[in-house]
Amino acid sequence: TAIFSSLAIFIACLGLFGLATFMAEARIKEIGIRKVFGGSVLTITKLLSLSSLRPIFISILLFSPMAWYSMNWWLQTFAYRIDLSAGTFILAALTIILIALLTISSQTISAATSNPIKSLRSD
User: Fold this and answer.
1) How many other CB atoms are there within 10 angstroms of residue 76's CB atom?
2) Which residues contact 65 (CB under 8 A, 6 or more apart)?
3) Inter-residue contact 43 to 71 (CB < 8 Å)
4) pLDDT in tens, 64-118
5) Dihedrals phi, psi of 114, to nearest 5 degrees
6) On the CB side of 109, how many CA atoms lie within 13 Å of its CA?
């Protein structure tokens, strides 16, 4: 099961990387204008990262209670059951956010460090 879990995480990271690439390409002119007006690489990277992480934050907030309820209902059928704590869900959420940040960071940093002249000259 660890192999299939790793494969599912890898496929999800590929999708997230594709989404970050698409968002960076769609906002290339905005990034160029921000750089011309003095925006730092850190602020541009933070802007792109937060826009990519917003759906992840929303899904964590919406689906963590559903996951807790369904897992608690499923675990009630076992004779030796465990109690689910909030720490488990917090650790899972932090792991998801860390993996997402590592996945999209290379794309956002390369978009933020690109030459603004090339992106603005193309029009």
Assistant:
1) 8
2) none
3) no
4) 999 999 999 998 888 888 888 899 999 999 999 999 998 888 888 888 888 888 7
5) -70, 160
6) 6
Query: Please, what's the largest Cα pairwise distance for the chain?
Result: 68
76: part of which helix (H) or strand (E)? none
Q: Is 54 left (phi over 0), alpha (psi -120 to 50) or beta?
A: alpha
Please, are residues 33 and 116 in contact by the beta-carbon 8 Å criterion? yes
CA-based torsion, 87, 93, 94, 95: positive or negative: positive
Q: How many CB atoms lie within 10 A of CB 66?
A: 9
> What residue type is assigned to position 106 of the chain?
S
- Is residue 1 helix, strand or coil? coil
- pTM, whole model, 2 decimals? 0.78
